[in-house]
C-alpha cells in the first residue's frame, strides 16, 4: 500500500450571498482533497474537518472513510462462508453465492490526527480486517436468526470493529437499498440519522423582474433564458430519530415527502406553476430552503422523537445545496 506523500487542498474563495449562514451549509473552504502519488482508491475518502487548526498546520484533524461491501446469507454453515476466497472484495466479501441473502455496504468513519511520519490516520487494511474478522461473524449469526436491521448492523460494526484499532470509529453508515443510508455515531448510538433520496423534474427561469433581459443575462447567464430550462433534481432528506420500540416508518416519510415536495414540484414550471416561487428566484439554494420549510413540522409530527436535520438538493450532479433545519 503506497504512502501518500503529499495531500493538497484546493481552495475556493468564499462567495458573498444573502442567505443566512445558520441555514445554508455551502462548504467552500475545502472543495476537494487529492493526492499526488499512488493509484486511485475509489473506496478511500479523506476530508479535512473544520477545526481551530491553522490552515498551515502540519497535521489537521482528518475524517477518513472506508466503504466495505458484504453479503449476509441465511446459511447455517457460517464457517464455510467465512472461509470463502476473497477474490473480489470491491464487489463484496462474503459474496452472495445464492439469492438467499442480502447485500450491504458499510461506510466506516474515523477521525483524528495522522501519523506525522507515514501520513496515515489508520491503515485501510486494518479497517477491512476489523470488520471482516470481528463484525461479519456476528452479523451472519444475527442474520440467520432474522435479527438484522440497518440500525442493528451499523451498531454491531461500531461495537465490534473498533477493538484493536489505533483510532476510534466515529460513525458507521450502512446502505441496504439504493438511495437510503442509515448513520449511527459512537457518541449516542440510540440516535439514528436516516438519509433518503427522491427525485423530481422541473423547469425554471432565473431572473429578477426589476432588471431588463440584458442585465438578467449578465447576472444569471443562460439560466435567464426567457423560455426557461429544466433539471432533473435529486433531493436527500435527512432525519434524526431515536431507535425505539416504535421506530420511524420509512413509508410515512415517503408519504410526507411525496405529498409535500414531489407532487408539488414534479413536472412543473417553478416560476409559473408553483406559488412558492412567484416572488422568489427558484435557485437551488431557494429550492432547498423551501423544502426545509415544507418538511420541518410534518417530519416532527411523525413521532419517534424525529426531527428534520437537513435537506440537500442536487440541481445537477455537480451542483448541490444543503440547508440545515
Describe this structure in words.
- It is a single chain.
- The protein is an alpha+beta fold.
- The protein has two domains: about 5-185, 6-pyruvoyl tetrahydropterin synthase/QueD (Tetrahydropterin Synthase, Chain A); about 195-325, 6-pyruvoyl tetrahydropterin synthase/QueD (Tetrahydropterin Synthase, Chain A).
- Helix content is about 25%, strand content about 30%.
- The protein is built from six helices and 13 strands.
- The protein has helices at about 80, 125-145, 150-160, 215-220, 250-265, 285-300; strands at about 5-10, 25, 30-35, 45-50, 60-75, 100-110, 170-175, 180-185, 190-205, 230-240, 270, 305-315, 320-325.
- The strands form two sheets. Strands 2, 4, 5, 6, 7, 8, 9, 10, 11, 12 and 13 form an eleven-stranded mixed β-sheet that branches. A two-stranded antiparallel ribbon has the order 1-3.
- Strand 8 and strand 9 form a beta hairpin.
- Helix 2 crosses helix 3 (about 150-160) and helix 5 (about 250-265) runs antiparallel to helix 6.
- The longest helix is centred in the middle third of the chain and has 21 residues, at about 125-145.
- The radius of gyration is 23 Å and the shape is elongated.
